[in-house]
Predict the 3D structure of the following.
Amino acid sequence: MARIGLVRVLTTNDIHLLNIHGAMIEAFYPTLTVSTRSIPDHPDGVYDWETFKSAVPLVIDAVKGLASEGSECVIVSCASDPGVLESRSAVSVPVIGAGEATGAVAASLGTKVGVIGILPEMPERLREILGPSFLAYIKPPRINRTLDMITPEGRIAVLEAGMVLKNMGADVIALACTAMSTLGILQEMKATTGLRVVDPVLAAGLLAYHAVTF
Amino acid sequence: MARIGLVRVLTTNDIHLLNIHGAMIEAFYPTLTVSTRSIPDHPDGVYDWETFKSAVPLVIDAVKGLASEGSECVIVSCASDPGVLESRSAVSVPVIGAGEATGAVAASLGTKVGVIGILPEMPERLREILGPSFLAYIKPPRINRTLDMITPEGRIAVLEAGMVLKNMGADVIALACTAMSTLGILQEMKATTGLRVVDPVLAAGLLAYHAVTF
């Protein structure tokens, strides 16, 4: 068994909500055990450039804490990858960003990747990783903060965004906000659109699995 | 069990040599079975821009053949990714390039990725995927064709290139030529350099595993 640390960028006292990404990874990668820690002062998560910026130093602290407690690899469970590059210089273990992981996996699955996210614009690093396979980015209307996404209205808005991307010609949908992992929408998005779909927490888990296995 | 197709860009009648990448993937990802096919007219593999260019249409044909025989995902087992983008538009199943996969995994493991390859210059797509984490590219001296690498001298030249990259400050070594998978140098490179090392066939296997599992 390998010990993985996971940083949530949503501040919450709800233990089920806090641990849901770690539980997904443990379920799909049975050789991994996950310890989760959330950053402070972000009850609405990371959903714009201001909350992104304020998360960066807090993510670095959380990564350092998890590494010092014995995590062999740390996942930053946010698809905008706040503090990921900076954390890599701060600890000796690998740091996986859910956004980079989503981009890498999505680029392997098709040539016209449609991206759904919560930030007003798509993260630059994700654009770079998708390279010639990027098609379009959509922030669903009426979804402004992380918790808006994990509601019945959020589910409908995300599925609608998937259909818009499909109608634009997408062959892959990248779910570029880990609230969509919390929402558990992967299989429903596949069934609704008929396309390949990438879940950011499972993509991060895949790279963490590689990091601690080979 | 999921059926994976694998394209070799080395033309060979040696069944062991032909199947070695598939055997590695089956060993490390036990839910995958691999069918291998090699392209014609490349007895020295892909080792310069001329052999790269001539491989492209042959790879596309091989990917189409494997997909039509029931492969659920096809790996192009060459780190320069000849015909990968083109094949994606030609078949309905995912096509994984070993080069893209190596870049994606390497970028998740550190901030200063040293790359070892056989082409005179590094493939552009790999540079793009590594983004801010690219450090340097080395083609080992005296290694000019694929089969040069799978010799005792090739082993030494590759390990020396790893040490040069380490001395330049690399924290990750990306083995960007699948002849280094054939050489089986992953663990020796890790032991020699003390760094994280990415094997291109195992990286491609990882993304193929994702493609057929979630």
About this structure: The first strand of chain A starts at residue 2 and ends at 8.
